[in-house]
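User: Hey, quick favor. My workstation is busy. Could you predict this chain's structure for me?
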Amino acid sequence: MKGYKFRLLIFYKLIFQDFFIKRVCLPILIILVATQAWSQAKIPQHLIIIENDQSFKREGEIICIEKSKLKNMPSGFYPLIKKANKTLTSQLIDKDEDGRWDCLLIEVNLNANSKDTLKMEWVKTIDEISFPQVTNIRFSKKSKNALPEKEIEYLERSRGFTQNIADPVYQLEGPGIENDKVAFRSFFDKRNGKDIYGKVLSEPILNRVGLVGSWHKLQDWGMDILRTGNSLGAGGLAVQKNGNLYRLADADKTTFRAIAEGSLYAAFKLNFKKWDAAGRLKNGFEKVSIIKRDYFYKNEIKLSLADNEYLVTGIANFEGGEAVLKNHNSEYSSVFTYGDQADGTKTKLGLAILFPASQYASHATTSSSDSIPNTSYVALKPQKNKTYNIYFIACWEKTDPRFSTKAGFESYIQEVADKLNNPIKTKILYK
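Assistant: No problem, here it is.
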């Protein structure tokens, strides 16, 4: 009897399982497969046509694909870029700072006078488009135990804040920014100056700079290579009015905010409320950014000036070297110095300010007794309701032997100017 009941139980179980699989599981599976296939069919296929119409090669150049140009973009997906079967390095950034990405940066290579086609695929997780970090923002309190302190993402300071440079409040005296070629720092105090760390390593190094040893002596990562003093250092700012220079430094309130860092791009922003500007108090900002492979940072500056006021940006010049003005093409000019000016060494360092040629007003070099001493500077015309875009270039021969000659340095400035004036062309196609 027990054997009969057991066989009957097995019989009913098999019937139920067969019914459940055929009538319940199988239809659900079919619906899921069909839904997934329909979803994949709905995801648009984007192709990016890139074109270099210039007679020089574009190697490791960064292009931006605006999100607004991507039609029928699938919700909840992220773009992955491929050339044939190779995945290209990319980074999503938020240019307008509204908390959402609006630009896709892609690292590309193009031969002279050539075109290429990239394929955009869509992936579900942002981890699938993560690449090794190359650019870096570093801002933290100075460590008391040679270990890095917590990074600062946002900070406000009031007027008059100072630091003892022998024992500063902050690890780098303010926020630092770097890529694989060079590093810069801004003083987050009433000086509002800028400085340069020459790098001999391509990896990010700012997290450990200032923790052990002096950055004025060559270490395994490089060193501080600029003597700043009271000069404008590495692109510090001033206002020229009636022939006088007034440093753009302190403000009633200065705010730091980290914007981005990653595989290709890093940026931070300094906002100034009631900024000292030639005897008047004005609001403005500096947005400092850097891109992989470049030997410069870009500074987007917003400041409203009167017709007789000029924005000034400068280069420390303690050696009295010649400051050369050069027109590179129809759009860009530069003021540059070159020589044995890497502080603490007898090595070559080329420094340049690249700017829109149409904005040029004048340039000069101050003496050691001037209000802003030991500075070669360029004065730029007022820009009504526009930002000033300047590029501060620093090329150290220990980073690249190309810069051991003045000709090598000048050729790099020309290369940058020509690339800015002739960006790679892009076109989006849909399949």
